[in-house]
């Protein structure tokens, strides 16, 4: 028999309904029900023999740009074939309702799948970039890529002819400064902070929960399993994000 999803505590609903500033940080778990392979799950089939460090570092790209861009092109096509789920849509609905009432809603994601934007979320702070955005490794020109597989790997820059790479954050690279600054400022002024589907192990994103807590926000974890954040937050909602987020948002926005 399926396990019943937990009831949402009344104290959390009261805080959530009163919150003028809501911040949500999402990780891979929010896209689980959309069938997006996690970073490690993407290393299956032909790719099973590779270590992430052979595919997701600037050194790997310099050593074998064809191999690295083939892997990222395959992941790009995989996310384009997936659809946003009820959890993504609930967050977009919450933003609409809160902003309509004059509140502030900031969505911060570590995901590179763009499913939040496809569900209707606006101004998403992408901490790790996006699989559908590619940039020239030399001149920096950036473009959206939502079409079929590239004709060649690595794809070439139309402006300067150099190799293009996915505009994602690789191991050893800095997070995008503007996106992270926006995320930090939002966390500092949040009344309610939710961490959804993230293991909370990757800094500095995980530290945002602590920033929000220190600033007095009510903090919530929505996750299918216990994480490093479970003991830090005020409320834990244990279960799938695609079930819990619609329920929470319906209760908070009252529709
Ligand atoms: P992780 O793969 O570390 O953690 C996924 C989390 O989602 C876990 O805590 C699961 O319990 C939870 N989860 C799984 N299914 C769920 C569901 N249906 N509903 C709710 N929660 C669920 O992913 P992230 O925390 O996103 O970095 O990892 C952060 C970063 O680590 C990634 O962006 C990537 C990786 O290294 C870079 O690529 C730079």
Describe the structure.
- Helix 5 (115-119) links the parallel strand 2 and strand 3 (125-126).
- Helix 4 (86-100) runs parallel beside helix 8.
- The protein is elongated, with a radius of gyration of 19 Å.
- The chain has helices spanning 10-18, 58-63, 65-80, 86-100, 115-119, 177-188, 207-214, 241-253; strands spanning 21-26, 104-109, 125-126, 129-136, 142-144, 164-168, 192-196, 218-223, 235-238.
- The chain contains 8 helices and 9 strands.
- By secondary structure, it is α/β, with parallel strands linked by helices.
- A 6-stranded parallel beta sheet has the order 3-2-1-7-8-9, sandwiched between helices. It has a 3-stranded antiparallel beta sheet with strand order 5-4-6.
- Helices cover 33% and strands 18% of the residues.
- 2'-O-acetyl adenosine-5-diphosphoribose binds at residues 27-29, 32-33, 38-39, 110, 128, 169, 197-199, 201-202, 223-225, 227, 240-241.
- Residues 27-29, 32-33, 38-39, 110, 128, 169, 197-199, 201-202, 223-225, 227, 240-241 line the site of 2'-O-acetyl adenosine-5-diphosphoribose (OAD).
